[in-house]
C-alpha cells in the first residue's frame, strides 16, 4: 500500500484549465441545453453542434470539477449548476463569468504575475479609459446576483428610524442598489454617478423599475465631480476595493461632508476576516485587486473602521449579506 | 441563520488566478526563500526585493489555496510545499509548472475555449516545429519527478524472467526511463529517439549516469524514422496521449513488429478509470490534451487494451505508479 497522492501543485498549476472549461461550456450554452434533462452525448451534439469528442472530454472534465453529473454515459446538472449556470435560472451568473474571466483580465493577470507582486500593484483595468466597454459589461453582468443583494440592502435601509429622501449612488453601475432604495421610499430622489456609457445601463434599469422620474445622473469620476450635499444616504457598492486606504479615506471624507447630520453611507464589499485568509472568497479577492488595479485591496472590518474614523465618521460596522459572500458596511456619522 | 454559501462557480471562474499566484511565487522563489523558516513580511521583503503590499496579498492568497501556512503575521511552508516547491527538495517541481502553465499553453487554452470543443481538438503545441524550445523545456522540467518513476519502471523490468539487452526509448526526452533500465542491465544497449535538440538533454543525462557509451540516438519523428528491430524492450513514456486512437494503433503495430517474440513495450500514461471522471488528475488530463493537441486524449485501460490487440499485441495491462498519479502500461507480445 502506498499513501494517497496528495500534492496540491498539479491541481493549482493546471487550475487555469477549469476556468477555460467553464468559458467553453458557457459559450456553447451547455448548461442551459442540458437544463433539467439527463442528456447523452448524441443529444448534446445535436443541441450544440459541437464535436462528440470535444463534448465528451469537456463534459467529463466539468464532472470532475463538480459542474456536471455523469450518469453512466449521459450528463445532468447538479443543483449549483442548475441554479447558477442554466440561463433560465433567475440566479444565472454566466454573465459574471464573462466579466471575472474576461479575455482582457486573464491576459493582464498572466502577462507577468511576478511584476505586480514586485511593485505591489498593476496598471491595467483601473487605468482603462472611462468609456472602455468593460465597465458597461461589468454593470450588465453583475446584475443577476446584485438583484437579491440590492433588495436586502434596501430592506436594511427601511429598518432605519427615519425615512430617506435623498440618495446618492456612487459608481452606480446597473444602479440596482439605489433603485431598490428608491422603490422602498416613494418620495426619495436618487442621484447616480458613474461613467457616461454606464449610466445608460442605470437609466434603463430605473426605467424598468418605474423610478426614472426620480433619477438624476452625474457623469464622471466620483473623485472629481461635485455631487452636491445634504444626502440622507450615500451608497458606494463595490467601490472602495479599487483604491488604496488613503484614497478611500479621502473619498469617505468627501462623502461625510455631503451627508446630513445622522446620515449614513453604505458600502457593499468582500470583507475578509482580520486574519485575511478567511473566508476563502473574500480573502482571495485581494489577489484579484493586486493583479488588476494599481492600489486596490480587500479591506477588513478594522481597516474599514479606521478609514471611516480617519475620514470623520463615528466608525464603520459590517454585516453579512449571506448567502452572498459580500458584506454590507455601514458608515455612521 | 442562512445556509453556507456553496457556489462552485466563483471558485472556478477565478481559478486561473491560483495558477497566476503560483507562477508569481515561483518566479520570486518565495517557497525556497521561506524554506524551513517562519518568515515575517519584513524578512520576506528583504529576501525577495518585492513590495510588502504585494507579498502580503500574494502570501495570504497562497495560504487560502493551501500552498503556505500563516502564523499570526508570518508565513511557513506546509508539507506539500516543502516537498514539491522548495527548490532545495529533490522532488521540487517548479520546473514542471513552467511547462504545465507555460505562457504559450495558457494563451492556447484561453484563446477560444469553445473552438476546440466544437472541433474536437486544437491546433497548437502538437503542430509546433520539432525544434520549438518548449520540447527541450518539457524534457528538462519533467525530470525532477520522472526520476523516481523511472527507477520504479526499471525495477519492474528487473522482475522479468529474462534480462534485457536491447532497449528502444521512444520520445525519450530527458531519457531517464531508458537510462534507469540501462543502469539496471549493464549489458543493455539503449537507442533513444526524439527531436534533435531534445536528444542533447538525453545525452547529458546519459553522460551523468555513466551510460553514454551504450547510447545510440535517432533524431526525428517516431512515426517516420526507421529505428531497427529485434528489441527486447520498447519504452514509450508519455507519448500515446498526444495522438488519436488510430494513430496510437499504427504506432503500436510498428512497435510490435520491431520487438523480439516475447518482447514487451512499456508505456507511462495518466490512465483514468473506465468512467473517465476518476481519479481527478488522470481524468482531467483529457481536457489538457483536447485544448492543446489535434487528437490527443487520456486513454482508459480498456482503450489501451483494445489498441494493443488491434495492433497485434496479446493485450495491455496497467499498474499504478503510486504515489505518482500515472500508470505503467505493459503491452505483451
Written overview of the protein:
2 copies of one chain form a homodimer. The first copy, chain A, is of the alpha/beta class and 333 residues long. Chain A folds into 2 domains: 8-87, Arc Repressor Mutant, subunit A (Orthogonal Bundle); 125-332, Vaccinia Virus protein VP39 (Rossmann fold, 3-Layer(aba) Sandwich). Chain A has 16 helices and 10 strands. The first copy, chain A, has helices spanning 8-13, 16-27, 30-34, 41-48, 52-64, 79-84, 94-100, 103-111, 113-119, 133-141, 143-158, 176-184, 196-209, 245-257, 280-292, 301-310, and strands at 39-40, 69-71, 74-76, 166-170, 189-194, 215-219, 231-237, 259-269, 315-320, 327-332. The first copy, chain A, has a 7-stranded mixed sheet with strand order 6-5-4-7-8-10-9, with helices on both faces. In chain A, strands 1-3-2 form a 3-stranded antiparallel sheet. In chain A, helix 7 packs antiparallel against helix 10 and helix 11 packs parallel to helix 12 (176-184). The longest helix of chain A has 16 residues, at 143-158. Chain A is globular. The mean pLDDT of chain A is 93. Chains A, B: Residues 150-314 form the O-methyltransferase C-terminal domain. Chains A, B: Pfam families: Dimerisation, Methyltransf_2. Chains A, B: InterPro entries: COMT-like, COMT_C, COMT_dimerisation, SAM-dependent_MTases_sf, WH-like_DNA-bd_sf, WH_DNA-bd_sf. Chains A, B: GO terms for molecular function: O-methyltransferase activity; protein dimerization activity.
Amino acid at each position: 500500500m502506498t499513501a494517497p497522492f496528495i500534492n496540491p501543485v498539479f491541481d493549482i498549476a493546471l487550475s487555469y484549465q477549469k476556468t477555460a472549461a467553464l468559458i467553453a461550456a458557457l459559450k456553447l450554452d451547455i448548461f442551459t441545453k442540458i437544463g433539467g434533462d439527463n442528456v447523452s452525448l448524441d443529444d448534446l451534439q445535436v443541441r450544440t453542434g459541437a464535436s462528440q469528442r470535444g463534448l465528451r472530454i469537456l463534459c467529463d472534465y466539468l464532472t470532475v470539477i463538480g459542474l456536471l453529473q455523469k450518469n453512466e454515459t449521459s450528463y445532468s446538472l447538479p443543483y449549483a449548476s442548475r441554479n447558477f449556470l442554466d440561463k433560465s435560472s433567475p440566479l444565472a451568473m454566466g454573465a459574471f463569468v464573462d466579466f471575472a474571466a474576461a479575455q482582457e483580465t486573464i491576459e493582464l493577470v498572466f502577462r507577468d504575475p511576478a511584476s505586480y507582486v514586485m511593485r505591489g500593484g498593476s496598471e491595467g483595468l483601473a487605468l482603462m479609459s472611462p468609456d472602455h466597454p468593460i465597465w458597461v459589461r461589468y454593470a450588465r453582468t453583475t446584475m443577476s446576483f446584485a438583484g437579491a443583494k440590492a433588495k436586502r440592502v434596501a430592506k436594511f435601509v427601511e429598518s432605519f428610524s427615519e425615512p430617506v429622501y435623498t440618495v446618492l449612488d456612487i459608481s452606480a453601475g446597473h444602479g440596482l442598489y439605489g433603485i431598490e432604495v428608491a422603490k422602498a421610499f416613494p418620495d426619495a430622489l436618487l442621484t447616480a454617478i458613474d461613467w457616461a456609457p454606464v449610466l445608460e445601463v442605470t437609466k434603463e434599469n430605473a426605467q424598468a423599475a418605474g423610478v426614472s422620474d426620480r433619477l438624476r445622473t452625474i457623469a464622471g469620476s466620483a473623485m472629481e465631480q461635485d455631487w452636491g450635499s445634504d444626502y440622507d444616504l450615500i451608497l458606494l457598492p463595490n467601490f472602495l476595493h479599487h483604491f488604496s486606504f488613503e484614497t478611500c479615506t479621502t473619498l469617505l471624507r468627501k462623502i461625510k461632508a455631503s451627508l446630513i447630520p445622522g446620515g449614513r453611507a453604505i458600502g457593499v464589499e468582500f470583507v475578509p476576516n482580520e486574519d485575511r485568509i478567511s473566508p476563502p472568497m473574500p480573502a482571495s479577492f485581494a489577489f484579484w485587486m493586486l493583479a488588476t488595479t494599481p492600489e486596490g485591496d480587500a479591506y477588513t472590518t478594522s481597516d474599514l473602521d479606521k478609514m471611516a474614523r480617519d475620514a470623520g465618521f463615528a466608525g464603520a460596522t459590517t454585516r453579512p449579506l449571506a448567502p452572498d459572500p459580500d458584506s454590507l458596511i455601514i458608515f455612521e456619522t
